């Protein structure tokens, strides 16, 4: 009898322990459903190829890029999953978790077939500039069709969590911040040299922005740009003097040093800062001022700060991927990041913020340079191509009026003309696609019918389809051969679906983030769902990306 009682008691103990263990597991699971950082910081480095992390790694200090790589999570095989890889679509895709197919930002500028004109992704004639009288700064996110990470955080917190967007470029500030942002600020260069916004957000500049504009910080960067370290130590880039780089107006050679003060008036006034690493320093200064000015991360309700460093793009366009100017710009940016992170540590708290860093696109090596080392590359004459397409349509159909516009590697039809002539649009699509495919330097062609009736799951076709917005895109889309660009023969650009444009860094760091890395393929559209999942809030409403669960603790 004793033994039976003892056995029963032991069994009860095991049951109790089992229940307690399950209860404990449930609590752990419940706690790990989401993290609540005081501040989420999104950093976009404009035109940053992934290999800049590895190429300049040994030159970086411990507090910038290296800190994120060694203490955070590194997605080494991260890509853009659509075409075109430009700044507007890049920033929109990162923060909405979807591609131009859904968010509608199909380029920086595109032909609007309803308005019958080329439009800019952030322009808005219904708002006014604030902080300047220039009509060039009438900007808002009204062309963005879906919500962003910041929008979802605002909605989740009943508008108590703030969202602030900052960039040298208007689109780099506006599109990440989204529709409900408390503020988006960008740099007005020219003769003014000041940070501005628009009436979409507010009717006047806040005091902290006015104080920053009055402090003379902008003028302090109109100075000599020389290499941070002895130029002979810059072994990760080509010779300083070569035939593949643009220079500033008023300077014969694209070689160090550059006296920005002397060159200022010939190069757009304060706009010259944008094409130097000091533009990044200015953004870091302004972002640091915003933390105090907006009290970001100062309470228990999560705020969102989006920061886009755009001078890397201006420098990359002017001097090219292999230049000493690009190398110096990244070495200086590394220092700016380090001091920005130090401020986040001090003001918000070392384990109180979550941060990600990525790019909006990469860049191709200067094709003229590639050709000089026997790599296939080239330049595409868009004007000649447009004439050839119109000439073909005139010959084949007796009129060229069926073509309304050729823009952004897309052919737009005039549907009123097609209807008047009773011509089936699919017939014209196929005929033009066949003609374009024979054109030198064109690699692939897709029709509207193909892109709207089928589903491509891999390769360039899938990238084209994800960048194709049914209401905004054209009727025939063509893709140029690798390393073939529409651009001057000095300097470089981006926009393709090739790896040099799609492979971008993606680093996560801070509260709720694991230390580690992965080589499995990830996409920029995975960032927003990962961050919203970490916060325990709803995904952006057009989101098509996946949660990167291995990134989170």
Textual characterization of the structure:
The protein has 553 residues and is an alpha/beta fold. The protein has 21 helices and 22 strands. The strands form 6 sheets. Strands 6-9-8-7-12-1-13-20-2-21 form a 10-stranded mixed beta sheet, sandwiched between helices. Strands 15-16-18-17 form a 4-stranded antiparallel beta sheet. Helix 4 runs parallel beside helix 7 and helix 8 runs antiparallel to helix 11 (278-293). The longest helix is centred in the N-terminal third of the chain and has 30 residues, at 2-31. It is globular, with a radius of gyration of 26 Å. The model is unreliable at 1-31 (pLDDT under 50).
Write a brief caption for the model.
37% of the residues lie in helices and 16% in strands. The chain contains 21 helices and 22 strands. Helix 7 (170-177) links the parallel strand 7 (163-167) and strand 8 (183-188).
Task: Provide the descriptors you would attach to this structure in a database record.
single chain; 553 residues; alpha/beta; 10-stranded mixed sheet; 4-stranded antiparallel sheet; 21 helices; 22 strands; 37% helix; disordered N terminus
């Amino acid at each position: 009898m004793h033994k039976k009682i003892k056995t029963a008691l032991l069994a009860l103990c095991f049951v109790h322990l089992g229940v307690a263990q399950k209860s404990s597991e449930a609590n752990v699971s419940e706690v790990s459903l989401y993290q609540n950082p005081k501040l989420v910081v999104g950093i976009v480095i404009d035109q940053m190829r992934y290999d800049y992390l590895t190429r300049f790694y040994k030159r970086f200090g411990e507090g910038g890029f290296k800190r994120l790589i060694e203490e955070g999570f590194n997605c080494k095989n991260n890509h853009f999953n659509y075409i075109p890889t430009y700044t507007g679509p890049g920033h929109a895709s990162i923060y909405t978790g979807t591609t131009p197919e859904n968010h509608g930002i199909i380029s920086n500028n595109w032909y609007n077939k309803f308005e019958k004109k080329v439009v800019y992704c952030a322009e808005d004639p219904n708002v006014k500039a604030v902080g300047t009288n220039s009509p060039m700064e009438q900007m808002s996110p009204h062309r963005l069709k879906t919500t962003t990470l910041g929008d979802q955080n605002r909605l989740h917190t009943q508008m108590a969590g703030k969202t602030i967007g900052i960039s040298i470029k208007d689109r780099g500030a506006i599109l990440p911040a989204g529709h409900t942002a408390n503020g988006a600020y960008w740099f007005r260069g020219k003769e003014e040299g000041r940070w501005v916004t628009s009436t979409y957000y507010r009717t006047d500049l806040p005091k902290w922005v006015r104080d920053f504009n009055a402090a003379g910080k902008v003028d302090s960067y109109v100075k000599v740009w020389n290499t941070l370290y002895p130029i002979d130590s810059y072994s990760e880039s080509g010779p300083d003097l070569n035939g593949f780089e643009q220079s500033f107006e008023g300077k014969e050679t694209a070689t160090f040093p550059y006296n920005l003060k002397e060159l200022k008036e010939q190069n757009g006034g304060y706009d010259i800062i944008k094409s130097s690493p000091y533009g990044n320093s200015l953004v870091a200064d302004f972002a640091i001022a915003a933390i105090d000015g907006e009290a970001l991360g100062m309470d228990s309700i999560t705020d969102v700060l989006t920061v886009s460093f755009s001078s890397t793009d201006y420098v990359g366009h002017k001097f090219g991927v292999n230049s000493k100017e690009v190398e110096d710009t990244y070495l200086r940016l590394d220092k700016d990041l380090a001091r920005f992170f130090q401020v986040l540590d001090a003001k918000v708290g070392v384990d109180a913020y979550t941060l990600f860093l990525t790019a909006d696109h990469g860049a191709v090596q200067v094709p003229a340079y590639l050709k000089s080392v026997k790599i296939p590359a080239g330049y595409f004459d868009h004007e000649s191509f447009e004439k050839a397409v119109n000439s073909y349509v005139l010959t084949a159909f007796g009129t060229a009026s069926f073509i309304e516009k050729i823009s952004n590697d897309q052919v737009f039809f005039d549907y009123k003309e097609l209807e008047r002539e009773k011509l089936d649009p699919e017939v014209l699509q196929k005929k033009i696609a066949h003609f374009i495919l024979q054109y030198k330097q064109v690699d692939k062609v897709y029709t509207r019918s193909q892109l709207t009736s089928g589903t491509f799951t891999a390769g360039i076709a899938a990238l084209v389809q994800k960048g194709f917005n049914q209401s905004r895109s054209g009727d025939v889309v063509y893709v140029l051969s690798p390393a073939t660009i529409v651009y001057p023969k000095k300097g470089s650009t981006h926009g393709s679906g090739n790896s040099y444009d799609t492979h971008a860094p993606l680093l996560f760091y801070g509260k709720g983030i694991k230390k580690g890395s992965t080589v499995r393929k990830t996409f920029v559209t995975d960032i927003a769902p990962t961050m919203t999942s970490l916060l325990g809030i709803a995904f952006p409403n057009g989101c098509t990306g996946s949660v990167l669960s291995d990134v989170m603790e």
